[in-house]
């Protein structure tokens, strides 16, 4: 992590569970210099939490949204300071 990194938390809402969303998100995120995780939520949404350069984080979210657009009804992203707590990008259950 460096000083310019941010934390992006995006919630994807729609038919986003059971369609390979997490695996797709992981495949995309691992192509970029970001860390964090993707996780199904009890309400049927998917949570993506990534840390990286601000523009890179935006690109990851855009790429996932573009790839999975047919399943996404809504997405909400919040940004904050990076914590440096992650060392890789993973799927959480």
Automatic annotation (TrEMBL):
Acylphosphatase-like domain boundaries: 7-93
Active-site residues (renumbered): 22, 40
Organism per entry: Blastopirellula retiformator
Protein name as catalogued: acylphosphatase
Entries under PROSITE patterns matching the protein: ACYLPHOSPHATASE_2, ACYLPHOSPHATASE_3
PANTHER family with a match to the protein in the record: ACYLPHOSPHATASE
Keywords: Hydrolase
Protein EC: 3.6.1.7
GO molecular function: acylphosphatase activity
UniProt family annotation: Belongs to the acylphosphatase family.
Reactions mediated catalytically: an acyl phosphate + H2O = a carboxylate + phosphate + H(+)
Source organism, top-level taxon: Bacteria
């Amino acid at each position: 992590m460096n000083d310019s990194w941010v934390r992006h938390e995006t919630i994807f809402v729609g038919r986003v569970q059971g369609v390979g969303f997490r695996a797709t998100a992981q495949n995309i995120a691992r192509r970029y210099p970001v860390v964090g995780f993707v996780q199904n939520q009890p309400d049927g949404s998917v949570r993506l939490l990534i840390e990286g350069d601000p523009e890179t984080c935006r690109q990851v979210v855009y790429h996932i949204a573009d790839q999975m657009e047919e399943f996404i009804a809504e997405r909400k992203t919040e940004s904050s300071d990076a914590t440096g707590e992650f060392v890789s990008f993973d799927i959480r259950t």
